[in-house]
Amino acid sequence: MSDEPIHASRYAWPEVEIDPVTRMRALAAGLPHVAVDETLFALPFDRVWSFVADLATNTPRFEGLVADVRPLEQQGERLRLAARNPILGWSEFDVVLRPGWCLMRSRLGEVGMAARPEGPRATRFLHFEGSPLLGRLARPFFAWNIRQDFRRLHSLLPPDDARGEPGRTDRSS
Amino acid sequence: MTSERIREAQGGDLLAMGDVLDALSPWVGRLCGSIALDAGPDAAQETLIQVMRDLRGLRDPDALRGWVRRIATREAIRHATRRRREPPIADWDDTSGPPPDPALRRDVARVLDALSPDQRAVLVLRDLEGLSEAEAAEVLDCARGTIKSRLHRAREAFRERWNE
């Protein structure tokens, strides 16, 4: 029997596709100052992500810490935008945005959002928020804020077959 | 991925950390998928969590790839061994598993499934990753002689089952 190597080009080795939510969980593990939570929408991935990824229009509708967003520049999936906090005023964010993945960083805060389909009609959504300046002490506040974001998102994105019945969307963390 | 970008990620730069994840994820997915098979998703997630959590402690940014390989290989063996003791209660279902694989990939998975996690690991490190015997021995924390004999048996078993 030959002891030649098993050539990768000849055999298709099994591989795991690591989805954006799994990646974002890993990223959050390296950020001790952020709060993380997940929720499930009874809607297809495209419906959820097209809403969330429209940062200028929709972020102020569900993110309590943001009252206004203005895009400044874009190069591919890298963006710069300005966001206005109701108390602290305007700050600029560096953003990476692509399907299922959004990272935002400013001088004061860090935000992550990720989504993946769970079957044809459901979408898992992960969200983290935190501030390196405020550190771990502020985590309970950001955890609370994320829960408020989810509540608003669920009311903005009701299930197709049960509009007005929020109980039809399961929430898990 | 430059050393400078890795250093920025180690310093807590959020976007640099994202770039490191982007660069590592497909490769970690191949390592864990090939060694841990159906336990691959869990092994890959654990690997990336460990990598991001401990990245700041890595002294030499240029050692990133070797460090991640060691974590991924060990996590994959650990998850595959545990999965062997506790067989999955169901196969991949249509909605939550990985995307459908071509027939060839299924055949390879069938053949690899007949090997032990240790044999798959040495096969992946030597024949997929191209590591030397000494490097594979370091990753798996065993003697070069063990790598040599394990690899020989793994290749032999692979070919026997492939030709069945």
Describe the structure.
The complex is a heterodimer of chains A (173) and B (164). Chain A is built from four helices and seven strands; from the N terminus they run H-E-H-H-E-E-E-E-E-E-H. With 173 residues, chain A is α+β, with helices and mostly antiparallel strands. Chain A has a seven-stranded antiparallel beta sheet, with helices on both faces. In chain A, strand 4 and strand 5 (101-105) form a beta hairpin. The longest helix of chain A has 18 residues, at 139-156. Chain A is globular and about 70 Å long. Chain B has 164 residues and is mainly alpha-helical. Chain B has two domains: 1-95, RNA polymerase sigma factor, region 2, helix turn helix motif (Rna Polymerase Sigma Factor, Chain: A, Orthogonal Bundle), CATH 1.10.1740; 102-164, Orthogonal Bundle (Arc Repressor Mutant, subunit A), CATH 1.10.10.10. Helices cover 72% and strands 0% of the residues of chain B. The longest helix of chain B is centred in the N-terminal third of the chain and has 23 residues, at 14-36. Chain B is globular, with a radius of gyration of 17 Å. Classes of the chains: A alpha+beta (173), B mainly alpha (164). Chains A and B meet through helix 1 of A and helix 2, helix 3, helix 5, helix 6 and helix 8 of B.
